[in-house]
Amino acid sequence: MPKDRWDKADIIAKIFATLLVPVVLATAGIYYNNAMKVKEQLQKDKEISLKNIEIAVGILNAKPTNQNQSLRDWAIKTINIYSEIKLSPNAMKLLKERSLPKPQVIYKENPVTIIDGGTFITDEKGSKLTDEKGNPLATDK
Fold this sequence. Notes:
Shape: rod-shaped
Helix content: 55-70%
Number of domains: 2
Order of helices and strands: HHHEEEE
Strand order of the largest sheet: 1-2
Keywords: Membrane, Transmembrane, Transmembrane helix
């Protein structure tokens, strides 16, 4: 019995399906692997950023001296690079001159930061300086 067009089309479709399924699966696997590599790299970048910020905060906790001024400059720039909320020029100036405050965090319904024995940072007019969210900046005595 001779084969008609539908039989020939069926044979050709089976051949294409046999060849295309592995190609499609391999392509999907490559895309998935690339996406996972990108995700892993982003996670590593976040970890490095966090470590840099931790180092910068440690430097800014120390009392400013002539010997550590270049480190303080690096720390301030590092925090500004990795932080979503950028420091204002006044805050950067004060961080060069003063150490970071030592906050005590109390958790009740909402976290509250209390600066024990600290003072608020003010500008030349006596107004309290705030970060971009409106939180007042404070420092040790």
